[in-house]
Amino acid sequence: MDVAAALAELFQLQAKDLELDQLEEEIQKLPPELAEIRTQWEERLDRLTELKEQLKQVRREYERNDLELKDLTQKRSKAQEEQLLAESAREVTQYENRIQQLSTRIDELTELTLPLIEEMERLEEAIGALEAELSELKPKLEELEAENEARIQELKAAFEEKRAEREAMAKGIPVPVLREYEAIRRARRGLGVARMIKVGETFRCEACSVQLPTHVAQKVYQGKQLVRCPSCGRILWKGD
Ligand SMILES: [Zn+2]
Question: Taking residues 133-154, what's their average pLDDT?
């Protein structure tokens, strides 16, 4: 095969590959404004979940207390009613003690319950504020998401078009050359083929700048076989 001719085509193909890399990178890149608003959105959403969970726990505790309070109050009313029917002073005192005990417990529990009510109010307010912030953010977020989606679709269309061109170019290059080039590109991320450039009386690899031994430069010039840079391993092309 005519290695020199194949490499000239390969070099052009590489230019196309680099454009494809660029497009891919652009597709991945999130617009800063969108990244910022997504972060704001997610932070508030996380906080909202947290607050709702807190509210659930406080409410559960409140309901438990409330239930117990109702029960104790009922028992006290019953004791008060029964006290009226007491038949002896001793019995009256017994009821009195019982009523006193229940009242103490009711007072204790009420004191524990009041802060819970305040806490629930505080949490509900915070949740309401967060929900308002979220609904305020939403239209902007949706707008930016839609814009980004459109941007990506456009880039993807450009990418597909370029890839088709690239595939057409690849058909003109011998498969072993292409395979080697692709393997190097995967390993070295970026360039698979590099030009040999003349600097004074010496030759260098354009990709890694290493000075090439004369026998390597000669082989590259002859263009009869694939020669790789002894330093970076890329395929060397003698250039136009
Ligand atoms: Zn090199």
Answer: 97
